[in-house]
Amino acid sequence: MNKSILFQQVLIIGLGLIGSSLARAIRERGLAQRIVAIDNHLHYIEQGKKLHFIDCGHDKVDESSRNLIASSDLIILAVPVQAVQKVLSHLKPFLNPNSYITDVGSTKGSMVSAMQQVFGDAIPSGFVAAHPIAGAENSGVMAGKADLFVNHKVIITPLASSSTQAIEMISQLWQSVGAEVVFMDAEQHDKVLAYTSHLPHLMAFNLVEQLANRQDNLDIFRYAAGGFRDFSRIAASDAQMWHDIFFANKSALLQAVAEFEQQLQQFKAVIEQQDSHQLMGMLGHARAARQHFNHMLSKTPLMEKQTVSQQFIIQPHSKALTGTFTVAGDKSVSHRSIMFGAIAEGTTQVTGFLEGEDALATLQAFRDMGVSIEGPKNGEVTIHGVGMHGLKAPASALYMGNSGTSMRLLSGMLAAQQFDSVMTGDASLSKRPMERIAKPLRDMGAKIQTTGEKGTPPVSITGKQKLTGIHYDLPMASAQVKSGILLAGLWADGETSVTEPEPTRDHTERMLRAFGYDVKTEGNKISLKGGGKLTATNIQVPSDISSAAFFMVAAAISKNADITLEAVGINPTRTGVIEILKQMGADLTLENQRIAGGEPIADIRIKGSRTLKGIHIPEDQVPLAIDEFPVLFVAAACAEGQTVLTGAAELRVKESDRIQVMADGLQALDIDCTPTEDGMIINGKGKTGEWSPIFGGGEIQSHHDHRIAMSFSIAGIRASENIVIYGTETVATSFPTFTQIAQQAGLNLSVKEVG
Ligand code: S3P
Questions:
Q1: Helices 738-745 and 545-556 sit at what angle, rounded to 10 degrees?
Q2: Pocket of ligand 1 (CB under 6 A)
């Protein structure tokens, strides 16, 4: 038997859109020796034969089709859901007990009860129900397409009676026609579909019906533009089919309709009352949720970067890098502006907000907890604070994407709330350690659970716990852990304090103070007392020094470069990269130093005027440059002599294992380097006064890590051949304008969308 043949003879009952598409797909992929069909429209059978996607057929399920039925090893019911029971009872006398039977119906509870009605307790073990989530507003045999199911989901709802083999065969059938198979029980299926498919169809029919009944309907339809067209497309769907579905899934659909009516009443009320704040909140929330779902609908889930969808190609460089640029807003400050604005009293205005996916994940999480947030629009966000006790239970798990900062800081805040919550993340975040924050929170009285032996996400938190302040000696230099504990401390009884082994970024402390909260810093000890409140303020987010670092290194390794990066945050807990580059001999100056929004900022000017020197990086600089090491390794490769980094084991638990991933990439580009447990030794290839290529060409994997992708782009400046970097879509997590600025600065970088 041919390897791709799954069935000897497939019988399809019903040659409408789905049945005929499946016949075409089975034929095109050679999955069955023979395809036969029964349809009461004889001309459908004729068409099927003419177009060769069936071999023969009948117009009735009765004695005359006995042979066709008995000799088929797979029978697919593709008739309207309300016709299923009748068809099954006619099929029953002729069924071969070894045949597989499946269906394509849009409701599954009705299918199960039809089987029970016809077969009682003896439902054949070969029966497995399925529902392809693929359709079109067109119907009939001519509307069918062989690729209708490609990249669409098929929900399989096996019964207790279904044999493993039958489940396996039906899954294989759908996978072979290009669909993605998911499993669910029938009841859950009907509930989900009531919201995602049946309600929207009912709404589309309802709107068109409403307009069609108006006296002036012709005018209305004539002038109806995009909105009407988009919304009403599915009202052209097959009436019989939707008639059947609405009845077959009556109770779940009526529940969804009741919730729709309630929601509509809310919109009606805020419009009536001209409550602009509420209306903006509701519209903003819905808009953001739709954008979030957009990624899922287009199969590129927001931050769920399981698949690589983009690559950068950097060609050898000749031009000098020059220009004045403003890099993206600070990620750490952006996260905190949303978090603190949300729990403050009053309205917080944020400017310079980083519209990257990480900070947007935080923003979405607070919207999911009922906070009304306007924007972001050109970096401006308005947060209508709900106060210390105003957050609401999210309807489902909070999705943190790639963002460790969101998850760790929110762990502290959520541990103190009156509701339960769950946080999940993408492939990279799902591998990162969460016990480091869960443990001290438990010491405070929180009920918090991480997953698996390694204590990774998802993180589940049980609300309504009484928290008590603790003193915690941080075992690692982590601003995220420090912040998570201090944030829980806002709601805890008494004093909460943290001592850090080395100073780490202090944005939490600074911003809490800006919101009027008393936070004490004495040496390495930071403390606050619970029970206070935050008062809304305005936050100006500086440009992110971590993003600026890519262009600082770019200029430092590029002959005659002269780049100015404007209004960059130079908070002393973040300036390790400046100190390290200066120690390596970079020509770097800080100009126009000033204070903006409580944070020191400056324009950073850096020139490519001399060859960098290798150094032993002082360990006290490590926490102050923790996110900049990937690009500093690139600088070290271009330096003369050896650069040694120690005391940086934290790099192994970032968005990727940045020691290993950088070492692999550098070695692939002909750099002599050795990864160590807590750092790296890099033998720089630079020679004083020479600006020839340092890196060979090659291919780099970003490992879901934005900073890896950007660092190797910078290496491209001194490469002898093309560098291709895979998985660069992650750059949008922290620096959505990276490619634009890189190209403007003179980098030969092109972006290719793949897959
Ligand atoms: C951050 C702290 C750092 C840093 C991260 C942002 C923050 O992580 O790497 O990008 O905003 O608090 P650790 O505190 O875990 O080192």
A1: 30
A2: 332, 405, 478-480, 483, 504-505, 626-627, 650
